[in-house]
From TrEMBL:
The organism's place on the tree of life at top rank: Bacteria
Official protein name in the record: Glyoxalase-like domain-containing protein
Domain Glyoxalase-like as annotated: residue spans: 6-109
Native source species: Actinokineospora cianjurensis
Organism lineage string: Bacteria, Bacillati, Actinomycetota, Actinomycetes, Pseudonocardiales
Pfam families in alphabetical order: Glyoxalase_6
Cross-referenced InterPro entries: Glyas_Bleomycin-R_OHBP_Dase, Glyoxalase_6
């Protein structure tokens, strides 16, 4: 058994998949017969964006943690792409919680202290 994909239920797969592609890079598929769009991440799992009729209503039970190489730059970039701060959820020194354009929470983690600095 292995992880094949992480699926994000959403109202607008085209819009949301474009946000995530701009943030993480990768290749987007055309929608399949059910309207699912796949973002294939370089070296990682794929993200599937599946259309659903209901809106997000509560905090996610599962979210993505994204390790940054430049914490301030990456947080600013995510916000410029359409993320919004979610400072009401789990404030911490080692991460920042943001919401994607449909309200799904994700965390930006500070660089790994054991990694070489970004150039």
């Amino acid at each position: 058994m292995h992880l094949a994909a992480i699926t994000v239920d959403c109202a607008n797969p085209a819009h949301l998949s474009t946000f995530w592609q701009a943030l993480l890079t990768g290749d987007l598929s055309t929608p399949d017969e059910e309207g699912v769009i796949t973002l294939t991440l370089p070296g990682g799992p794929q993200l599937d964006f599946a259309p659903v009729p209901e809106a997000k209503s509560t905090k996610n039970r599962l979210h993505l943690d994204l390790r940054t190489t430049d914490y301030s730059r990456d947080a600013e970039r995510a916000i410029l792409l359409g993320a919004t701060p979610a400072d009401d959820i789990y404030p911490g020194d080692g991460w920042r919680v943001l919401r994607d354009p449909e309200g799904n929470e994700f965390c930006l983690l500070r660089p790994d202290p054991d990694s070489p600095p970004a150039s």
